[in-house]
From TrEMBL:
Species classification: Bacteria, Bacillati, Actinomycetota, Actinomycetes, Kitasatosporales
Organism: Streptomyces thinghirensis
Protein name: TetR family transcriptional regulator
Presence of keyword Transit peptide: no
Keywords: DNA-binding
Tree of life domain: Bacteria
Signal peptide interval: none
Domain HTH tetR-type span(s) in chain numbering: 15-75
InterPro entries with a match to the protein in the record: DNA-bd_HTH_TetR-type_CS, Homeodomain-like_sf, HTH-type_Tx_Regulator, HTH_TetR
DNA-binding region: 38-57
Gene3D superfamilies attached to this UniProt entry: Tetracycline Repressor, domain 2
Amino acid sequence: MGGTMDGTKQQRRRGNTRQRIQDVALELFAEQGYEKTSLREIAESLDVTKAALYYHFKTKEEILVSIFEDLSRPMEDLIAWAREQPHTLETKQEIIRRYSEALAGAAPLFRFMQENQATVRDLRIGEMFKTRMLGLRDSLIDPEADLVDQVRCVSALFTLHAGMFVLRDLEGDPEEQRAAVLEVATDLVTQAHRGSSGA
């Protein structure tokens, strides 16, 4: 990762008020919980008036939905791409690889969702996330696959999710950990594909 590119990206995000609101809100939601965070606190952390915040977002949920939509766009693109592809093993392995990248890019959001499951379930993003997960699942599962292979495909997705949280507590290089999780998830779809194709 080149420091200069990161710096430029940070500046671009800093210059964009809407994104600054999203970043600060997600930080506060993660630190003190969604319920305990007020719009006033978000405005204070940004050093803007509540009216300035209102110009972009009327409610906390609007902020959270916008964060979810922005950070989960790669997931949507991936589902759209997968629908156009043949149901080959290569396609499935590529779906897992790209999903692993999408999760890494949206790590703060997924951590928040994991740690605030009850809140997420009651908000619109719970339903949005479920829809996306079903889309991904359908792109991995062969309709004629037996139950064990269907479970393997779904488990591959959850392996990537679990990897984000479980590995944080383990020693070692995060990139190596991500690669190990990706390998296990890829093994699962490979095994499932072999099972359903009778190979």
